[in-house]
TrEMBL record:
GO MF assignments: heme binding; iron ion binding; monooxygenase activity; oxidoreductase activity, acting on paired donors, with incorporation or reduction of molecular oxygen
InterPro entries recorded: Cyt_P450, Cyt_P450_CS, Cyt_P450_E_grp-I, Cyt_P450_sf, Cytochrome_P450_fung
Keyword DNA repair on entry: no
UniProt keywords, alphabetically: Heme, Iron, Metal-binding, Monooxygenase, Oxidoreductase
Full protein name: Cytochrome P450
Family annotation (PROSITE patterns): CYTOCHROME_P450
Binding site for heme: C447
Family classification: Belongs to the cytochrome P450 family.
């Protein structure tokens, strides 16, 4: 009898435990989702170009701020509003800070890069390196170099305006090499500029990030070949400037740089659990380059476009600079406080066209990477959870759609319009809009270089506005040629 009673009681206990502890998967629905193909899921529905626009359109079409997609068996969550991105990625950061494997980049030789680390001791170590090196206070130390390089850039653009895009790129390359390694770029033919160009090409396409590690004899997959073809440049980007700094230190040189401080810190710390190895330092330098160069360059390009299309805003900005900066001086950071319109204009550049539109996404499988991963950088949930009454499975890739967030009509009136004064209170003619929040990402993977990036964009914007007029090209009869405006697609837009 006693045995039967024990069985019944155990059964009851198990039932109660199951009822209360079972995953909520069965009881809660998944978030709304567009129609899907069997097995493939949404793979066929995502366009290969600018998927952020499709995600935004679907949000409107299905009347939802969060969308659930599936790529084969991989769940993906799209967040089209700031409120949801903050609620999940900022407030539940511990759950949504993982990354998937970036096989494509690992194949190229990016083995010690913060951007591509999953959550691990290595991730923490590198996050600390970046977090402590680019605080607001530390970035003040980099400003003199940014001003000098911006000055060189505008002089070169004034000499050959048709080369403006290449010169902006040369500026961002020069700033990064200077800050990372204390290397001064001599000109467009500089070896480091060439390596840097190759690195941009290698990373910018990112077309097949999801390729699994395959044996070297597998050479017939074009993107795999592409990744391997760029290995040499990735290796050079890691080794050459690092060796340059080591040699400089050995010869008693004193040029300050990010890499120099890491080497010095490593030499002081010695063998501790947090020890920074040569490979860590090489990886951090190369990561700084890739993360900072294209993003800053693309943002300045968006600024140029905004000025081209909005001549009256350009005039207002130039009038403010003329009032504040003496005509015989190049602007610098001492003028910043007195240039509030420029500050709003820069914020509007970041809002209007964020250059990393899908800041938080991932590469779960070989197939959809081409569509999805080539456009973004991942966050991934480490455990199953629920949100707004929906079930979010473990391992879900979460994409904050910065483009949709910045064009949310409930937050930004007339969101397509480039309007710097929208941030002013209504009493001063504005709309009291909040400054944009998605262009540097969210949560524990938020861009650790945002202070440096913002300053690099700011000084370029002020330098260009102070010295030249951005305007449309004219044809032989002096008539303005309307630009054909479109956005590229890739890790940066
Ligand atoms: C205007 C310039 C820049 C923009 C728009 C930008 C934007 C971003 C975005 C959207 C992310 C992904 C964040 C996420 O996953 O939630 C990111 C990550 C990152 N950025 Fe930036 N960035 C800029 C400049 C810089 C600079 C100057 C540095 C170097 C100090 C830098 C270093 C990094 C690194 C290392 C990561 C990876 C962080 C991680 O995975 O934990 N960025 N950036």
């Amino acid at each position: 009898m006693a045995t039967i009673a024990t069985y019944i009681l155990s059964g009851l206990l198990l039932f109660v435990l199951y009822k209360f502890l079972k995953p909520q998967k069965q009881s809660l629905p998944l978030p709304p989702s567009p129609p899907t193909d069997p097995i493939l899921g949404h793979i066929r529905s995502i366009p290969s170009k600018n998927p952020e626009l499709t995600y935004m359109k679907w949000g409107k079409q299905y009347n939802t701020d969060i969308l659930y997609l599936s790529f084969l068996t991989q769940p993906v969550l799209i967040l089209n509003t700031a409120a949801d991105a903050i609620a999940l990625l900022d407030k539940r950061g511990a759950l949504f800070s993982d990354r998937s494997d970036f096989h494509f980049f690992k194949e190229q030789g990016w083995t010690n890069s913060l951007t591509f680390f999953s959550r691990s001791a290595e991730f923490k170590k590198h996050r600390k390196i970046f977090g402590s090196s680019f605080t607001l206070a530390k970035c003040v130390g980099y400003q003199a170099g940014q001003v000098e390089e911006a000055w060189k850039m505008v002089r070169r653009i004034l000499e050959s305006p048709g080369e403006w895009n290449g010169e902006v790129k040369a500026y961002t390359t020069a700033v990064v090499l200077r800050i990372a390694y204390g290397i001064e770029v001599k000109g467009r033919d500089d070896l480091y500029v060439k390596i840097a160009d190759q690195i941009s090409e290698a990373g910018g396409t990112g077309g097949s990030t999801g390729i699994r590690r395959l044996p070297e004899w597998v050479t017939f997959i074009p993107s795999l070949k592409f990744a391997r073809d760029h290995r040499e440049y990735v290796r050079k980007m890691h080794n050459l400037p690092f060796e340059h700094v080591k040699k400089e230190i050995a010869q008693g040189g004193s040029t300050p740089s990010f890499i120099r401080s890491l080497i010095e810190e490593r030499d002081v710390l010695g063998e501790t659990p947090d020890e920074i190895t040569d490979a860590d330092i090489e990886g951090a330098g190369a990561t700084l380059y890739t993360a900072a160069q294209d993003t800053t360059h693309s943002t300045i390009t968006v600024f140029i476009l905004a000025m081209l299309l909005n001549p009256s805003i350009q005039s207002t900005a130039q009038a403010e600079i003329d009032r504040v900066v003496p005509a015989d001086r190049f602007p610098d950071f001492t003028h910043r406080e007195k240039l509030p319109y420029i500050e709003r204009l820069v914020q509007e550049v970041f809002r209007w066209n964020p250059v990393v539109p899908l800041s938080t996404t991932s590469s779960p499988s070989q197939i959809h990477v081409k569509v999805l991963m080539s456009k973004a950088i991942p966050h991934k949930s480490s455990k199953a959870t629920t949100y707004k009454g929906y079930y979010i499975p473990a391992g879900t890739l979460v994409i904050a759609n910065a483009y949709a967030i910045h064009r949310d009509p409930n937050v930004y009136k007339d969101p397509d319009r480039f309007w710097p004064d929208r941030y002013l209170p209504p009493s001063e003619g504005g709309d009291g809009a909040p400054v944009p929040c998605a262009h540097f990402g969210f949560g524990r993977r938020i861009c650790p270089g945002q202070n440096l990036g913002y300053a690099g964009v700011w000084i370029a914007v002020v330098g260009i506005l102070a010295t030249m007029r951005v305007r449309k090209v004219r044809d032989e009869r002096g008539k303005e040629v309307e630009p054909n405006v479109g956005m590229t697609t890739g890790l940066t837009r």
